[in-house]
Amino acid sequence: MNAKQSDKVATGVIYSFVGIVILILVAILGYILVVGIPHISFNFLTQPAQSFKAGGGIRDQLFNSLYLLVLTLIISFPFALGSGIYLAEYAKQNWITSTIRTAIEVLSSLPSVVVGLFGYLLFVIKFNLGFSILAGAIALTFFNLPLLTRNIEESLASVSDLQRDAGLSLGLSNWRTITRIILPAALPGIITGIILSAGRVFGEAAALIYTAGQSAPTVDYANFNPMASDSFLNPMRPAETLAVHIWKVNTEGVTPDALSISAGASAVLIIVILLFNILARWAGKRIYRRMTATR
Q1: Cα–Cα dist 291/222, whole Å
Q2: Span 226-245, pLDDT tens digits
Q3: Displacement of CA 111 from its chain's centroid (Å)
Q4: Domain count within the chain
Q5: Quick check: 262 and 255 in contact, CB under 8 A?
Q6: At 244, which CATH number?
Q7: DSSP character string of 125-155
Q8: Average pLDDT, rounded, for the chain
Q9: Are 284 and 191 in contact (CB under 8 A)?
Q10: Is 231 helix (H, G, I), strand (E, B) or coil?
């Protein structure tokens, strides 16, 4: 077999593996959507859940998932951005930075149930936050911080050194070069990291069972006062997310239509993640064009 034939065989094998991965992904998503979409209705999306009778919805769980995502990103993104900038632009290659990177890798490999138990013991019990959205968001910050930090660091490091040299040669300080040149150029990769971390937040259940709780008390969606106990913006209230709700209705065995609820909720979860990905990429492209003055 000559070199040309070997190249064709290797290319065919690679395309075959890619095709298998795509088929598996399409099969999983297609099955979830085909089975779940018939159970989705306006009432299903706007009615509260029911525990002991059929016909419940996912209104509160869907909102809790979105609210938890926003709160988690507000907490975790500034820390990840600062850490990524430090590691990519300021840190020297020595044992300190090696230790930091090793710690990040170890933290990223922790099982989510371990993060949940840690959050339960520290934030729910020790800090007396109780089962709350805030406790869940902090726990998910520990869960997502390594992914975001590594992604931001790699996105910044992938920017050509020519752009750094160009900024410094124009008399810009190192910080202004980073904020005006490097960050805008690395924005697409950073957006990808945010999308990946958002997917983990939407689909996480184990860590939230021990921190955000398994109940979704009735809240007043017209009350915008975050200090009110019944306000939907109160971060100290317990909040069952969509992923936790899917797990709960399938394990408790008290909901008559648990299969249809879990199927519909799973389809909604997939659709919400897809919509978030599309919206994040659209917003990222607009911000990137505005910051880099490109069309």
Answers
A1: 37
A2: 888 888 889 999 989 999 99
A3: 16
A4: 1
A5: no
A6: 1.10.3720.10
A7: IIS---S-HHHHHHHHHHHHHHHHHHHHHHH
A8: 87
A9: yes
A10: strand
